[in-house]
Amino acid sequence: MHKQILALILIIFTPLVTLWNSLSYSEEYTECTKCHKTDSNLKGKFVHPAVQMGCAVCHSNAHKKDAKDPLGLALDDVPQLCFNCHDSKMFEGKVIHPPAASGTCTFCHNPHSSNTEKLLTSPVPQLCYNCHQKFDRKIVHAPVAAGLCLLCHTPHAGSNESLLLKPLNDICIECHPQVPKMEHVIARGHPLFFKNDPIRKGKEFTCVSCHNPHDSDSMLLFRYKVEGGDKYLLCEHCHKK
Questions:
Q1: Which residues pair with 140 in a beta bridge?
Q2: Full-model pTM
Q3: Sign of the CA dihedral 132, 133, 134, 138?
């Protein structure tokens, strides 16, 4: 009998508690909007879930005299605040994107809302071009022309050079599986895995030793200038006559 009464109490009061929490968030948020104009922060197509939970989730120290952060953030620095919800391991690795390493999350992401997925401040590749040069030479690699930066690169951290999702040659073969089998210098026995690139000191000899992965003024995205349509002129950059 007692168990039945307890179950009935839970059935009645659990929704009320949930509603009370919802109202308290709503009331707290409404209090903020009396002074702070939030329309510009919330007009985006995608809204940060934390915003929907109430301003105090992130700005819990707002209006406190001893608050160190002028925005009243719960923690003094942004990355640690973000890590309350986001896994910090995603931003650890052998190679870390400088904005992620410096903890400037809001350089790429809007903390409130955005018209772009992942709350990005602008779409890729325009966002990338805020720091990286535009690739607009005569020939542009198809994924680059399509703005698919994240097809090859991870935006936060990884274990490969240049934040590649996989080792460089594996990335290339993923889209060009026919290259080792076709009429190509590497199919004829040219080594591809030299430890040292003869021209680019300190770099390994890989696909990008001959090809620029982004754009080029030469045929076949060759890294070095080749004139007259004779692709074997590229060889002379390493193999001097």
A1: 215
A2: 0.78
A3: negative
Distance (Å, rounded) from C-alpha 177 to C-alpha 16? 60
Q: What is the largest CA-CA distance in the chain?
A: 99
> Concatenated DSSP letters for 22-90?
HHHHHHHHHHHHTTS--HHHH-SSEE-HHHHT-GGGT-TTTT-TT-SSTT--SSSSHHHHHTTTS-GGG
CA 125 → CA 12, 119, 151, 185, distances in Å?
52, 14, 11, 33
Mean pLDDT for each 10-residue chunk of the chain (241 residues)? 52 44 43 75 88 86 79 79 92 96 94 95 97 95 97 97 93 89 72 78 88 95 89 87 72
Residues 188, 190, 191, 197, Cα dihedral to 10°:
-160
